[in-house]
Fold:
Amino acid sequence: MKLLRWLFPHPILTILLTIVWLLLVNGYSLNSLLFGLFLGIVIPIITSPYWPDRPTLRNPRMIIEYTLIVLYDIVVANVVVARVILFKSNADQCPAWVSIPLDLRSPEAITVLAATITLTPGTVSADLSDHGHSLLVHCLDAPDPDAVRDEIKTRYERRLMEIFE
Amino acid sequence: MTTFLEFLMAAFLVISGIFGFVGSYGLIKLTNPMSRLHAPTKATTLGVGGVLIASIVHSLLSEGHLSLHELLITLFLFLTAPITANFIAKVHIHRHETRESLPRVGEDQDWATLATDAEIQSD
Structure:
């Protein structure tokens, strides 16, 4: 058991690295699979001292659900923002800063949340408070900033809470 | 089937072209620097995504094998694009925003970008 943990300090990273290597090679021979596995085993062992408090991911079903929701939101929000850019005059837009109080505590989870907010067009995460308890978000067009905050909290943060903590 | 895939490919290319154009147009049209930041984040998501899906369909069509290389480009873009945006936003906060122009922090003392600034000055 101890040997297994030494060999695979981060099993998900091992799988991910193998898949990334296979995609880089862009072919599916046994050769590249073995070399991908080799990289997937060696790299986590070498890097594990630099990443001591890595979070354990729970709830794989929720990870899939979260990914699908984010992809869907990216498509929808792209259309919404395209409408704002093309058809709304600059004077009619109401850009707003929103402060989002965070319940998430693990740095990895906050990173994922901030990246999600930036990737869904119309919102960009700009800054974190000094102790990491709030996130500063800029909205392109938000007549109701409180609604944006509530949506981010219920739609993304609640799911990340189930995955990370 | 081939014709259908060709139509699909063309549709994705056109969609990504439109979103790439809207992103670039937004960069010119919008006035506020933070609003401008929103426009390029669009080009990286749907604009690039459309081209990549079209590329997957194309390799399926003309070379007859599934090439998923493109997924990696998506992965790397999703990793790097938020960091770029965050850095530009931080520069904007340093140069154009004050404690009063930003919303209240909540339970903490200050926004991290401004707090380090204040600490440097007090040293």
Q: What stands out?
A: The interface with chain B takes residues 20, 23-24, 26, 74-75, 78, 81-82, 85-86, 90, 93, 95, 97-99, 101, 114-115, 118-119, 121-122, 124-134, 136, 138, 140 of chain A (CB under 8 Å). The longest strand of chain A covers residues 96-101. The beta strands of chain A are 96-101, 123-128, 134-139.
